[in-house]
């Protein structure tokens, strides 16, 4: 078996080129990326600093537009979309997780998640229950009223994963979600993302520099100098164990 059953391609990038900066200091950061993300899978992306990982994540999440190439998210071609249409697509289909959590410090855990629901037009009496349920699903049912300043890094990252999950987006994009955490909490967060990816309605892509997290990957993509340099399905080849040992 090479794919989880019922999985489908939810993000398709074809020939993505991205030029950043202004002449004469333009840099071709992405040089023709072809990539598909499938539901039911955790894809981990590695690569040297400056190779284009964050830029690619921003394009896949419709924050940046490609200079060239096609991006299709949840069956919708993004090429001719207006900024507003892209924002709607992002709100409906994409959840983001950042290295630095990006929680609103004056709001409790449940209020942070409710804010994300509100941005997706989910509000009213059911919103609290949905937010509490999202927190429950990441193991924080007992911390819903905690303020970010009273939470550990691992707990804050769990809140940010609950926030990304709120409204059930089809894709979760995480930029170095474990980088600010100690080894134990980092592994627990990556394990949680692997669990989140088991939902056959959702794909998860996370950038990581930590080889120990590779054991959770269904797929490992290596990016180098703006190009895909490698793609492995380690649970089939056994490669993750080998890579994690380095
Ligand atoms: N707004 C910008 N204008 C010009 N160049 C940029 C801009 N943003 C990023 N770059 C350059 O694009 C290249 C890729 O950056 P990117 O952040 O995508 O790399 P990365 O692989 O995520 O790196 P890291 O692992 O250090 O986070 C780098 O050379 C960076 O300096």
UniProtKB/TrEMBL annotation:
Gene3D superfamilies: P-loop containing nucleotide triphosphate hydrolases (3.40.50.300)
Pfam family for this entry, one: ABC_tran
GO molecular function: ATP binding; ATP hydrolysis activity; transmembrane transporter activity
Keywords: ATP-binding, Cell inner membrane, Cell membrane, Membrane, Nucleotide-binding, Translocase, Transport
ABC transporter domain ranges (all copies): 11-243
GO cellular component: membrane protein complex
Stored InterPro entries: AAA+_ATPase, ABC_transporter-like_ATP-bd, ABC_transporter-like_CS, MacB-like_ATP-bd, P-loop_NTPase
Taxonomic superkingdom: Bacteria
CDD domains, sorted: ABC_MJ0796_LolCDE_FtsE
Family the UniProt entry places it in: Belongs to the ABC transporter superfamily. Macrolide exporter (TC 3.A.1.122) family.
Protein name, per record: Putative ABC transport system ATP-binding protein
Species in which this protein is naturally found: Hyphomicrobium facile
